[in-house]
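User: Good morning. I'm curious how carboxymethyl coenzyme *A would be positioned relative to this chain. Could you predict the structure with it bound?
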Amino acid sequence: MSQSVILTDSHNRTQVEMPVIDGAIPAKSLQKLRVTQDGAGLVSYDPGYQNTAPAISSITMIDGMAGKLLYRGYPIEVLAVESNYLEVAFLLNNGELPSTAAAARWREEIQAHATVDPFIVDLIRSFPRDAHPMGILISALGAMGTLYPEAKEVLDSDVRRRQVYRLLGQLPVVAAHIYCHGQGIEAEEPKADDGYIGNFLRMVRNFGLETAEEVPAIRAAMNCLFILHADHEQNCSTTAMRSIGSSHADPYSSMAGAVAALYGPLHGGANEAVLRMLEEIESVDQVEGFLQRVINREALLMGFGHRVYKNMDPRATLIKTLAYSVFEVTGANPKIDLALALEQTALGMEYFQARRLYPNVDFYSGIIYQALGIPADYYTVLFGIARAAGWLAHWQEQLEDPAQKIARPKQIYRGPDERAFVPLEQR
Ligand code: CMC
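Assistant: Good morning! Here's the predicted structure, ligand included:
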């Protein structure tokens, strides 16, 4: 049975019936209700898109109350254990898990498009060594767009597919050069048969880990972390990718914008911010004092809270477990005790309970990265390499959707009415 809602204008008693489709009303139907004397239609006001769906998507499903996350219908808990990152990237971008032959073709195409132009490597090396890796990554992606003029043909699906191969292939290589530049070391040459994560780790020299026990452990951990970070529906950076892509900008430029959004501490930059916060808190006996500052709104508890999850973020649960398996090889990171004390104390406090604030994906990931010897300013780059699969899936989905339009929201204007210009000498 079709469902609709009826909206009544209390001023003149006019009514408008709006269809409810998939739990949503088409926002444009609000315009039928004329609310000003000049006949302007009703608009919705929604800062931060808290209750606005800009897309119909088939990629990722989140049930925030149940703490459930599915990629194309597959639970994240299963993918994290049974799958590998490239297979998940295929799933996100193509809708189904690949056959053996399709997985091999996917791997080969990505590998074949992975060569980074020397100009990009020179660009990375032109930055000061202590420049933030995320700033360099934004620049490198913008520069990559200048190398592939065909990428502007965003409505051509063959062209699009090539850019997906290039971006998935080159992003870890670019990221590896950024890391090596910061460390003042040469990136190791990739090896054809070392796999996607293996090659990235080879290039960055396994972040200094080298024993026969450590190398497989870091590969397994990175594979799991990449899968957990691969997509998260209409998050801030994906919305940036979709917004920029909606103007038919090339995907390199769109992804530079997505990386810029990810960089912010309220989004992907939270993984670095959590580590900085733990360093500031220093010891378990300072936890209560710090949380009191949070309650007094003098600080944020980084790695806590989420727009969609009002229960434990399932990625945080998995990452917390992963931390202990990494520590078996690397030795425990003492920050884990501090993080656990922070989590337990916060979850027992009325402030966090009333607002349904729980650890999110960024709360424990930095502790693993630190145990693996990775510098804090590089954590968000790792998030970005992984999220590229999701950004590209959303970019393609949007371009294939005939209902999509250039992103161009409305505003509520409260500035001055038209007025006369006064020349400088008369002010
Ligand atoms: N510490 C203290 N108070 C918080 C926190 C926090 N981390 N998160 C939310 N709150 C409070 C907030 O002040 C508000 O209180 P009140 O209603 O009394 O004003 C209430 O909880 C609701 O929060 P909100 O800011 O309206 O929620 P939002 O959906 O707009 O923001 C968020 C979501 C993730 C930006 C926010 O929870 C936050 O700033 N968290 C810390 C940064 C962080 O960990 N970000 C990573 C997010 S998950 C992964 C990712 O996207 O990369």
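The mean pLDDT is 96. Residues 48, 235, 266-268, 270, 294, 300-307, 355, 357, 360-362 surround carboxymethyl coenzyme *A (CB under 6 Å).
Let me know if you'd like a different ligand tried.
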